[in-house]
Design a protein that fits this description.
Length: 270
């Protein structure tokens, strides 16, 4: 049996319900869990390198203001009313270097503020943490590992790991496994954003299926807003995502699971 986790990043208080519904109803109807990596309190002035608002802001700006996820109760109710959705914590404000800082106090404040915003909105306490842009410092890895059972990232670097974790990390390297564990925390690596508008569409589905066949547990990462760039639905890209749902549902040798399933010990790591 092979296992797949679908991780969608950047849900926030500005996310239209219609976008999530359009993308993930085929998954939910088939009983395939969708892990939403939720920004607890999104900052409204985030931009891309060319100065445009980040895609997940849907073209909106707001100075230095931040908006908690709880300010969109309809979105919160939608997620909670569909048990196929599982919520992970995606940073706090989604600042670019948010968890690349080295001050443990500042990191702790951001982690706890983010969790509190999710709890105040009505979500259960998150067990999985995703750092914006996969940027961790050693201090943020240590503090995150104290509070979450799963850290999901594209990669983990030895230079940022505390020495007590090195034996487990080096074992992962020797046996060429994607995932590993130190203490009570599980570290899940993903093979890049295979479902992305920045990848060739003609080869995307094949890339996804090939990645799934190469390892026991695969984390597939995508971003809901990439399917609705410039407020226009990218029909071809959405079709590829739904083709992926069909593939996952029909293959009896694949089980789609949640991060919570990993925490519960129901998913082998290698």
């Amino acid at each position: 049996m092979r296992y797949v986790i679908l991780r969608d990043d950047d849900t926030n208080t500005l996310t239209p319900i219609e976008c999530l519904e359009r993308l993930y109803r085929p998954f939910l109807e088939r009983g395939l869990p969708v892990n939403l990596s939720v920004i607890p309190e999104v900052r409204m002035n985030l931009t891309t390198p060319d100065g445009r608002p980040e895609g997940f802001l849907m073209g909106r700006r707001g100075g230095d203001a931040t908006k908690p996820i709880g300010q969109n109760p309809k979105l919160v109710r939608y997620v909670l009313n569909n048990p196929g959705y599982h919520v992970a914590q995606h940073g706090c404000h989604h600042d670019y270097f948010e968890f690349a800082f080295t001050d443990p106090l500042e990191i702790t404040q951001r982690l706890e503020k983010g969790t509190l915003q999710l709890l105040d909105a009505g979500f259960p306490r998150p067990q999985t943490f995703v750092a914006p842009h996969d940027k961790f410092s050693r201090a943020s890895l240590v503090e995150s590992a104290k509070r979450f059972y799963v850290l999901s990232s594209g990669w983990f670097e030895l230079r940022y790991l505390p020495p007590s974790w090195w034996p487990r990390y080096l074992r992962k390297k020797v046996f060429q496994t994607a995932h590993w564990q130190a203490g009570h925390t599980i570290f899940l690596s993903h093979p890049g954003c295979l479902l992305s508008c920045n990848r060739p569409y003609d080869a995307m589905f094949e890339s996804v299926t090939a990645a799934i066949r190469t390892q026991r547990l695969t984390v597939l990462v995508t971003h809901w807003w990439e399917y609705f760039r410039n407020n226009q639905a990218d029909e071809r890209f959405i079709e590829i995502l739904h083709e992926t749902a069909n593939f996952l549902a029909r293959d009896p040798s694949i089980e789609v699971v949640s991060f919570d399933d990993v925490v519960a010990g129901r998913v082998p790591l290698d």
